[in-house]
Write a structure and sequence with these properties.
seven-stranded parallel β-sheet, alpha/beta, Rossmann fold, about 40% helix, single chain, about 260 residues
Length: about 260
């Protein structure tokens, strides 16, 4: 007898129904958008950030599949509590989006050492530690996906926007992604990264409305503009879901072509 099973659906592998995800830096900007994307794809999303009021508002808006967990990713006790809460509330852990990040703009010769260390701590050390904490629960859930939010500035210099610590940290995220992907792929934990170009966010807010800064973006990106936040949706969902089941250790640049020229 012919098999009259459900029709072929190439979009089914992008669904996250029944899965549990963590998104850090979820209170604003791209992180808030990432929560929306994973939630819309069916996941229960544990939203982490320092601003509890914003997390609560997002949870109230989206419903009971968003779990707000106030978190400072620079504090290890908070990182441990975040992963434990996700596993306790969801019974499993399938996706980790390491999105939280900070930057500091200054000439390298005058950048205070403590600021350099702070940026690396939040942007790189916290990414490693959260991935480390997520590893065992993901293996216990049958596998999982870690998506690190890097930056195109992990691949190229930022000057004339002088931010040595940010570039160093994001370059570290790119190679950490390769190494963790290589180490953990056979254990069922895929590690990849998204590297955005210039997008409007709290971190880049000072650039928009300034003609020199906007001109710099238009000239540098072959598409001639900054990205719209929805233009990261596909990259995030692809890497987080089974659609990328054969993708390991990669950094996907979503930068309007900035690093292609």
């Amino acid at each position: 007898m012919p098999d009259h099973a459900a029709p072929f659906d190439p979009l089914a592998s992008f669904r996250l129904d029944g899965r549990v995800a963590i998104v850090t830096g979820a209170s604003a900007g791209l992180g808030r958008r990432f929560v929306r994307v994973l939630h819309a794809a069916g996941a229960t999303v544990v939203a982490a950030a320092r601003r509890a009021d914003r997390l609560d508002a997002l949870a109230e808006e989206l419903g009971d599949r968003v779990v707000p967990v106030p978190t400072d990713v620079g504090v290890d006790a908070d990182r441990v509590r975040l992963v434990e809460t996700a596993v306790e509330r969801g019974g499993r852990l399938d996706v980790l989006v390491n999105n939280a990040g900070i930057s500091f703009v200054a000439p390298a010769e005058t950048e205070p050492l403590e600021r350099f260390e702070e940026v690396v701590s939040v942007n790189l050390t916290a990414v490693f530690r959260l991935a480390q904490l997520a590893f065992e629960p993901m293996v216990g859930s049958g596998g999982g996906s870690i998506v690190n939010i890097s930056s195109m500035l992990g691949s190229v210099g930022a000057t004339p926007v002088k931010q040595a610590s940010y570039c160093a940290s994001k370059g570290g995220v790119a190679n950490l992604t390769r190494e963790l992907g290589a180490q953990w792929g056979r254990k069922g934990v895929r590690v990849n990264a998204v590297a955005p170009g210039w997008f409007r966010s709290e971190m880049t807010d000072v650039m928009w409305g300034d003609e020199a800064s906007e001109g710099y973006v238009r000239r540098g990106a072959p598409l001639g503009r900054e990205g719209d936040e929805h233009e990261l949706d596909g990259a995030l969902l692809f890497l987080a879901s089974d659609a990328a089941s054969y993708v390991i250790g990669q950094t996907l640049h979503v930068d309007g072509g900035w690093t292609a020229v």
